[in-house]
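Worked Example 4.2. Consider the chain below.
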Amino acid sequence: MGKKFILYFLLCLASVHYLHAQERVTTFGLQVKPIIPIQFFDAGKQEQSVNNIDYIVNPKLGMSFGMVIRKGFTNSLSLETGINFLRRNYDLTINDADSSFSGTSQFRLLTYEIPVLGLVYVRINRQLYMNAAGGISFDIYPTPLFTADTYFTNSIARTSWLQPSLLANVGWEYRTESSGYFYFGASLHRPFQKIYTEYIKYEGESGFRNEKAIFELTGNYITIDFRYFFHEDPEKRKKKTKKEPKVKGASR
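Applying the procedure from the previous section yields the following structure tokens:
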């Protein structure tokens, strides 16, 4: 599904003849991106049933925020990078039908991202632009995680401390003459492999059970993107001047 999403927007942009970007402009921005768990992109809840015990790992609303640096190269292409901090929230629910027990706990995963994206712009009117972008995100996972309660333990092991992911977004940008740019859009983030493996051990209220379940956390998500870019003037081209050769005066 992620590949279809990217190809769709790239093909739409390729059919538009008038492209416009920020030639020779380097600008700095800030962004806030709520993380939306959606089952359609394999980013929803996961369930298992083992020995009449149900385990449910349910992603909740998360948050990402950070800074962006954008460099315009030509009239149709820009490069964007930066760094983002992510906080992803989860619920873990264990239902034991034999003892009529149900318990829910929360845990969160903290990560960092360094995206590198190529952007193409379409001018809608004088101040409104549409853009599409695609590239790679280098994701950093600082530490594994361990949580526990009286009836369970939950160990979450990272696959690697650094992993690449596919990143694509589409959005609209309103550009003012002197007050910067305001951006609204959406992004799809899809790691090339699982990011964590979750090991759950259920001991029950009495502590005498020894049931286990394993989940693989994919790390897929979509975000709603809000950005603000500060106003910057285009960089001036340096003109090369040829030095005229000095003419020696005639001897008398």
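The chain has one domain: 2-229. Residues 2-229 form a domain with the Porin fold (CATH 2.40.160.20). Compare this with Example 4.1 before moving on.
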